[in-house]
Amino acid sequence: MSALPQEGDVAQEVEIVWIEDPMKLDYVRQALDKVHTRKGKPRYERDGRLIGYSNLAPKAPRSADSGLFARRTFYLLPHDRPNRPDDPECPYKVGSPLEAVDPRTVAAGAVGEKTARSQGTAETVRTGP
Which of 2, 6, 75, 81 could form a disulfide with 31 if both were Cys (CB 3.0 to 4.6 A apart)? Predict the structure, then answer.
């Protein structure tokens, strides 16, 4: 199961683990997944690739309805802009998916946010020739 995380859903997070450098990405998709463990790399069953995940506090409770733990995963699908930055046919050349956030705004216990960078509207500052 996967859902968009809300502030209360991430209160038990103690750490965000990045598998890839999030500073190189305009956005990542975030989802709240139900998994069997509080920490460690969760099983990833989507197209694309896993970029990061959250670890929970040692005493984080299980969901009463499923007996599983709600943890965030951060991922990209094959057609996402960070995978195709120079492709004019990319569906997210400007804008981003509903669940996308700027990875620079992600922290343990805080839901990420959309920014001009994640929306593809930020001006790029060039250095050098």
Answer: 2
Residue 23 maps to a domain: yes
Cα 28 to Cα 21, 43, 61, distances in angstroms: 11, 18, 27
Could you list the pLDDT tens digit for every one of the 129 residues in the chain? Answer: 456 788 888 999 999 999 999 999 999 999 999 999 999 999 988 889 999 999 999 999 999 899 999 999 999 999 888 888 778 777 877 888 889 999 999 999 999 999 988 888 875 443 333
58 in a domain, yes or no? yes
| Structural tokens at position 59 | 């005493």
Which residues, in sequence order, are bridge partners of residue 107?
110
Domain that holds residue 41: 2-105
| Number of folded domains that form the chain | 1
DSSP string, 5-24: --GGGGTTEEEEEESS-GGG
Reported pTM: 0.86
